[in-house]
Amino acid sequence: MATQAKAAYGTKLKMGDGGSPETFTEIPEVGDLKGPKVSVKTIDVTTHGSAASGANEEIIPSTINGGEVSFQLNYVESDPVHIALIAAAQGRTKKNFQKVNPEGTKTISFAGYVTDIAFSDPVSDKKQADVTITVSGGLTFS
């Protein structure tokens, strides 16, 4: 069977402006992008009676966590979207985001907080920032 893998190059990450209707603007200069994720927490419900079924631990699913979205970007100090990311972090403001596949046909939508921006200015490389968005609430796949 031939692979159905697709290149990730061209994926877009967009941030909403909070308006009604909300407008999403692409975050420019994004490099490697990781997340979000679907992580189901579990609760251990093992009892003394579990021994009757071979002493196996038993679990049940609990809450779902969307994790984090992390990425590197070529930091442009004058870019309005980069400035808005910093303002969202400093203001502890929940924002809506969209991760759009390269074809523009599939989107993962989520809300989250910009929880970390780490700037780097290497002597022989570009200005960069490592950004982390912590997801708050569910993920919508469309």
SSE inventory with pairings:
Layout: E1 12-16, E2 24-26, E3 30-34, E4 39-44, E5 59-65, E6 68-74, H1 80-90, E7 95-100, E8 107-120, E9 128-135, E10 140-141
What structural keywords apply?
eight-stranded antiparallel β-sheet, two-stranded antiparallel sheet, 8% helix, elongated, mainly beta, 142 residues, 1 helix, single chain, Factor Xa Inhibitor
What's the rounded overall pLDDT mean? 95
The N- and C-terminal alpha carbons lie at a distance of 27 Å
Q: Strand portion, in percent?
A: 35-45%
The name of the CATH architecture is Irregular
CATH class: Few Secondary Structures
- The residue ranges in which pLDDT falls below 50 over 5 or more consecutive positions are none
Integer count of domains: 1
The counted number of beta strands is: 10
Query: How do the SSEs run, as a string of H and E?
Result: EEEEEEHEEEE
Outline the structure in words.
The protein contains 1 helix and 10 strands, in the order E-E-E-E-E-E-H-E-E-E-E. The protein is mainly β and 142 residues long. The protein has a single domain, classed as Factor Xa Inhibitor, CATH 4.10.410.40. A hairpin with a 6-residue loop joins strand 7 (95-100) and strand 8. The radius of gyration is 20 Å and the shape is elongated. The mean pLDDT is 95.
Quick synopsis:
The protein is mainly beta. Helix content is 8%, strand content 44%.
